[in-house]
Amino acid sequence: MARRSLRLPWAAVGALLVAALLLTGCSGAALTPSSWPGVAADAETAYVASNQAVYAIDLATGAQRWRFPSEADRGVALYAPPLITDDGLVILGGFDKTVYAIHASDGRQAWTFTQANDRYVGGASQAGDLILVPSSDHTLYALQRASGALVWSFETGAPLWAAPLVDGEVVYLPSQDHTLYALNVRTGKPLWSKDLGAALSDTPVLAGGLLLAGTFGQGLTSLDPRTGAPDWAVTTAGWVWGNPAADEAAAYFGDLSGAGRAVSLKDGSDLWSYQAGGDVVASPALGDSTVYFATAAGVVQARSTADGASLWEVTLAGPVNTDPLLAGDHLLVAVAGGDVLLAALDPATGATRWTFAPAK
Questions:
Q1: Predicted local distance difference test score (pLDDT) of residue 218
Q2: 348 burial via Cβ count (<10 Å: 0-12, 13-18, 19+)
Q3: Among 58, 81, 289, 325, which has the minimal tally of Cβ within 10 Å of its Cβ?
């Protein structure tokens, strides 16, 4: 195993995160979202939302291309993962109850949507000419991509913290009210809903003809995407905050007990597992034969998809609660609370290629 480290001391946040969530998780009461960076990328640029700005960063060099807003604004707080649309917009919601559409080319504002009554924590999704944005005011807003005008909205019983999954004419919406909803993408009308017995905080995944969803109480659950009927479920020692990554045979995921696991898509049976050494809040990233886990202790680990064998491990200077992202030939990892905001690692070795830190 190759081991590389960027070492700086930091205060562990995992125990505090779990303690805060335990106060309300199974009761159905509102949970408190943490503020960690949101990351997305296209072929040439990484976009990182953190604190008062979203930064566009050159994938090849790590240099900043632009930031939005161009000057610091204390009224703005941006943490949701940006959505990059197919017509060149970067869209994300803020803690200021506003959805921003920004031109990816130069960071100019295209439009805003300001009708929500609470902050945006989760990312947006694109469905053709619609942008679907989940809000902590319990509502999914469907907006016109070109103008930001409201087309329809759908209200649930609790805050929405995760981007919906769009598959053709169906939208799958996870909610903190313990329910996974299937909606018609054009009208927002419900097709079915399923109470999973615990809050959902991340986007479900379609794999092997199944809909996979992690929860704060039941582990990982698989459903029939047409009806919501359950198939198999995996019980975990800790809550599943992130979503799984999946290939044709297996689903890979972690939980707040610090376990990283691979289970069979066929029946949910265990294929392999290991202890990551810290709370696994982020969803793993999946390569051709490697799965990448990150922990709230700042450790990034590459594991073989075949048997879970360790390939390399890197310790970064701060907690990693944001999903690592494979972009081009980089593994992008956002760090919360440190001097470095984004690190680009070599997926094969874990070596650092560049880091990005916002200008002071």
A1: 73
A2: middle
A3: 289
